[in-house]
Specification:
The chain is mostly helical. It has a domain at 8-90. Helices cover 55% and strands 0% of the residues. Helix 2 (41-59) packs across helix 3. The chain starts with 7 loop residues before the first helix and ends with a helix.
Length: 125
C-alpha cells in the first residue's frame, strides 16, 4: 500500500495493475465493509476537494499514468486510459465553471456570445 498520499487507494491500485495484478469487482449479499459518508454539503465539498488534490498529486508525480509502467508493459491500454481519466478529471472544472458563468455575463452585459449565429437564425425564422 502506498502511504503518504492523499489518493493512496488509487496509487496503490495503479501500482498493483502495473505489476500485473488483476482486480475483480466483488458484490457480496451481506455488507462486508462499513464506512462513513459525508452528511452535509461542506463535508461533501471537502471530500471532493481531497479527491481532486489527490488526483493532481498523482498526475504530477513520477507515478503519472501517462508514462508510469511502460517498462513493465503490464498496464493494458484501457486501464491506462481509465487511470489517466481519473487523474485529469479536476481540470474539467475549468470549462464547466466558464460554461456556467457565461450566461450570467451575457444577461448582465446584454451581449450575446455568438451574435452572428443569432442573426442568422432570425433570418431563417
Amino acid at each position: 500500500m502506498s502511504y503518504g498520499s492523499i489518493a493512496a487507494d488509487t496509487l496503490t491500485s495503479l501500482k498493483m495493475h502495473t505489476r500485473g495484478w488483476r482486480s475483480v469487482y466483488c458484490m457480496p449479499k451481506r455488507a462486508a465493509f462499513r464506512g462513513t459518508a459525508p452528511i452535509n454539503l461542506t463535508e461533501r465539498l471537502n471530500q471532493v476537494l481531497r479527491w481532486a488534490v489527490g488526483s493532481l498529486e498523482i498526475l504530477f508525480s513520477r507515478h503519472c499514468p501517462l508514462w508510469y509502467g511502460f517498462k513493465e508493459g503490464r498496464l493494458k491500454v484501457l486501464q491506462r486510459i481509465a487511470y489517466i481519466n481519473s487523474t485529469v478529471y479536476p481540470f474539467s472544472a475549468l470549462p464547466l465553471t466558464i460554461y456556467c458563468i457565461i450566461p450570467a455575463i451575457c444577461l448582465l452585459t446584454d451581449k450575446f456570445i455568438t451574435p452572428s449565429v443569432i442573426h442568422f437564425l432570425i433570418f431563417i425564422y
